[in-house]
Every structure is written in structure tokens, then in C-alpha cells.
UniProtKB/TrEMBL annotation:
Belongs to the CFA/CMAS family. Pfam families: CMAS. GO terms for biological process: methylation. Keywords: Lipid metabolism, Methyltransferase, S-adenosyl-L-methionine, Transferase. PANTHER family: CYCLOPROPANE-FATTY-ACYL-PHOSPHOLIPID SYNTHASE. It comes from Nocardioides eburneus. SUPFAM superfamilies: S-adenosyl-L-methionine-dependent methyltransferases. Its EC number is 2.1.1.-. This is Class I SAM-dependent methyltransferase. GO terms for molecular function: methyltransferase activity. The keyword Acetylation does not apply. InterPro entries: CFA/CMAS (IPR050723), CMAS (IPR003333), SAM-dependent_MTases_sf (IPR029063).
Length: 436
């Protein structure tokens, strides 16, 4: 008799995880398995949830069941499932059952549960579906829907960033900044840390009144406004999110910065202006695609004036050999087509574009603290967030932010700043020592 025989659905599923789950597991047939002493548990409520788990083993199947309401988490708030995830992170992949064991599992659970249900509506089309969609539209050349084409990049950004500005106001707080903050002290507030982040970037770029800044992937315009307000530069930001651009322009007008700051709803590749003293790229490189680094950093080099500076702020991997994909759950629910690679690859791409790297730093631990703050905001405004975007989407955000926090804490992912100059005939314009 195998370990899962006679234990119902919960026992059968638990046996598929290497070593079993470290938390409790309950199923709709009344069966119980996993760790009975844990204060946390998963409860499988429906046959559809079982089918999600069986047909997409690992984090994607569990996420589908959870987002759709077929799986519940006990012992933790849905806006911050960090305590539960900390116990099961990296333990959600099924072990490979032996042929005889697999046959018994099918008999126990029923073959109908191995037919994949339709994914929840919050899930973004996978890459192969994009190709099919491209072929279906006779008016479009299928190649326009290739990975990181302008059309597909716009679609990916729309999926994540055009959720609801009101929702983002609840989660991000007054700064409306959706990138890693920089905590000057352990007890600094999220707002203080976001201010410190923007100020550090301005210092790294050596911004001075009258200079021109181009901010690529500017979000709701936080960097643009900070640079214009506190450093007197003329700042242009571009974003592929129409909702972000609209909110940013209204805020620029409200703060009386119209003469210095502008945010455009535009692909960065459509920026025709050149001769900028500085370019900031804060959280955009993740969306570019590793294969497109040469053209991206080449574009930046072409927009900088001699001695101009680039500050690239990007989530990275701790090595340069892992697959660039951000993972199935992140790709389908959070950042479609997102790619992460080691900072060494980014440094190489910047240098290969003709820029001279002057400074390189990892602020990984600051992103864990940033995500902790966002999770708290989501919990504090949970009912309002659910009313704004729906329970499924709010669950996605709680799951994604808590899981990402763990990733940064455990050094599975990092956050790097790379500062570079457009050095011409040996003249970088950079001081003898860093001034920040």
C-alpha cells in the first residue's frame, strides 16, 4: 500500500509534494493531510480546484485554484499571505510519481480531474496564445505580436498597470511609486523611503537646474515630479499605460510643475528628442527582454549628450545563467513577458552600447521592506481594494507581493542600480569620487 492510499483527496495530493506539505491540507471530501500541528492550512473546496492543481502542478495550479476561489488559505490574511508562503515557498512542485503510482492516483482522483479547466479571468494569455491570436487577425502581420513587439508590450503593460489608479493609490500610498524604495533608516516610513530613492537617483545623475531628464517607463511620474520640483530640471517621462499618463499629468498640473515636467502616453521608442543630460530607467528593463538589451541601451546612448548619465534601476537574478523567465505565476498574472537576468548581463549590455559604467550597487533588502509596506497597505484597505478591482485580482496582488518579498529576503532575486556615462574621447564628466 502506498503512502496516500486510503487518505482521500488530501492524502493523495499531499503525497505528490516532495516530503509532504509543511502545513495542513483539507479537501472537500472531508480528508485531512499535511502537517496537523501547523497554524496554517490550505483548504481545497471544489473539484475544479483539484483539476487546477493536477493539470498545472506547482505554483501556477495552486494560484489558479486560489484566485478562482476553489482553494482557501487559513491562518493568514489574503492581502498578506507571507507567513503561510514562507513555509511552502520552493516546496510547491510535485515529485515525479512512479508509473504504477500514477495509475493509482488517476484511479483515486478520477480521470476527469486531469482535464484542465479554463483559467481564471485574471490570467494573461501565455506566449503561444499570443502567436495564435496574431495569426487569427488577418489585418495584422503575425510578426507584430512577437515577444516584445510594440503591440505586445503595450498589451502586457495594459494588463498590469491599467487595473485602477484608485487601487494603486490604496496599495502604493501617496507617492504612487511602484518601484523599490530606499530606506535611510530601519524605521523610515514607505513615503520617506520613496522620497530617498528618488533623491538618490537624482544625486547619482548629478542633476542641476536647467538640465533635461528623460525618464523611461515613468509610471505615475514620481521621478519626473521629484526631479523637476527639487532639482529644477526639465523632465520628460514616457509610459505605455494610458491610466498612468493621465494620472501623472493631472498631478503635475496640481503641483504647478507644468513648465518643467511632462508625462506622455507613448512607447519609449517613439521619443524623438535627443541631447538629454540624464536618462533614468526605473523598473523598465524587466519588461524589455534580454534579447533587446542592445537596442534598448543603444537607444539610451543615442539620446544622451556627451558626458550625459544613465541610471538603470532593475530587478535582477543573483546569477547570469538562470533562465530569464520570471516564472509561470508572475508571467501569467503579474508581469506578462517579464524577464530577469543577472546584473552582470546588464552591465555588459550597457558597456557594449558604448557607455562607461561608473557605479553598480545592490539594494535587494530594500525591496523586501518596500513589499512589506505594500502588503500592509493592501491589508489596511482590503475591503476598498476588493470593491475596486474584485476579490480575485486583490488576491493576486497579495500573493504576488508576499511571494516577491520572500524572493528578495532569500536572495532569489535582487535589485541593482547601474550608473553609467556617455564618455567621449575619454571625457566622462564624472568627478574623481562619487558625490552621493
Amino acid at each position: 500500500m502506498t503512502a496516500h492510499q486510503g487518505q482521500g483527496i488530501a492524502g493523495t495530493i499531499n503525497a505528490l509534494f516532495e516530503g509532504g506539505l509543511p502545513i495542513g491540507l483539507q479537501a472537500y471530501d472531508g480528508s485531512v493531510s499535511g502537517n496537523p500541528d501547523s497554524e496554517y492550512a490550505l483548504e481545497l473546496l471544489t473539484p475544479r480546484g483539484l483539476a487546477y492543481i493536477l493539470t498545472a502542478p506547482g505554483d501556477l495550479g495552486l494560484a489558479r485554484a486560489y484566485v478562482s476561489g476553489d482553494l482557501e488559505l487559513h491562518g493568514t490574511h489574503p492581502g498578506d499571505p507571507y507567513p503561510l508562503l514562507s513555509l511552502i515557498l520552493d516546496k510547491t512542485d510535485f515529485r515525479a510519481p512512479k508509473p504504477a503510482e500514477l495509475l493509482e492516483i488517476v484511479r483515486t482522483l478520477g480521470v476527469k480531474n486531469f482535464r484542465p479547466p479554463a483559467p481564471p479571468p485574471q490570467e494573461h494569455l501565455p506566449a503561444w496564445r499570443h502567436a495564435v491570436e496574431g495569426l487569427r487577425h488577418a489585418s495584422l502581420n503575425a510578426l507584430t505580436w512577437g515577444r516584445h513587439s510594440r503591440e505586445r508590450d503595450a498589451d502586457a503593460i495594459h494588463h498590469h498597470y491599467d487595473v485602477s489608479n484608485t487601487f494603486y493609490e490604496y496599495v502604493l500610498g501617496p507617492s504612487m511609486t511602484y518601484t523599490c524604495a530606499l530606506f535611510p533608516t530601519e524605521d523610515a516610513t514607505l513615503e520617506e523611503a520613496q522620497y530617498a530613492k528618488y533623491d538618490l537617483i537624482c544625486q547619482k545623475l548629478g542633476l542641476k537646474p536647467g538640465q533635461r531628464l528623460l525618464d523611461l517607463g515613468c509610471g505615475w511620474g514620481g521621478m519626473v515630479r521629484h526631479a523637476a520640483k527639487h532639482y529644477g530640471v526639465k523632465a520628460l517621462g514616457v509610459t505605455l499605460s494610458r491610466e498612468q499618463a493621465s494620472w501623472a499629468q493631472e498631478e503635475i498640473k496640481r503641483q504647478g510643475l507644468d513648465d518643467l515636467a511632462e508625462v506622455r502616453f507613448s512607447d519609449y521608442r517613439n521619443v524623438a528628442e535627443t541631447g538629454f543630460e540624464a536618462v533614468s530607467s526605473i523598473g523598465l528593463t524587466e519588461h524589455i527582454g534580454v534579447a533587446n538589451y542592445p537596442s534598448y541601451f543603444g537607444f539610451i546612448e543615442s539620446r544622451l549628450k556627451p558626458q550625459g548619465r544613465l541610471l538603470n534601476h532593475c530587478i535582477t537574478r543573483p546569477d547570469n545563467t538562470s533562465r530569464a523567465s520570471a516564472g509561470k505565476f508572475i508571467d501569467r498574472y503579474v508581469f506578462p513577458d517579464g524577464e530577469l537576468i543577472g546584473s552582470g548581463t546588464i552591465v555588459s549590455a550597457v558597456e557594449d552600447a558604448g557607455l562607461e559604467v561608473q557605479h553598480h550597487e545592490n539594494i535587494r533588502v530594500h525591496y523586501a521592506k518596500t513589499l512589506t509596506g505594500w502588503n500592509k497597505n493592501l491589508v489596511d484597505h482590503w475591503d476598498a481594494c476588493v470593491a475596486e478591482v474584485g476579490l480575485g485580482t486583490a488576491k493576486v496582488w497579495g500573493l504576488y507581493m508576499a511571494g516577491s518579498r520572500l524572493g528578495f529576503e532569500r536572495n532569489n532575486i535582487q535589485l541593482h542600480h547601474v550608473l553609467a556615462t556617455k564618455t567621449v574621447t575619454g571625457d566622462s564628466g564624472y568627478p574623481l569620487r562619487h558625490t552621493f
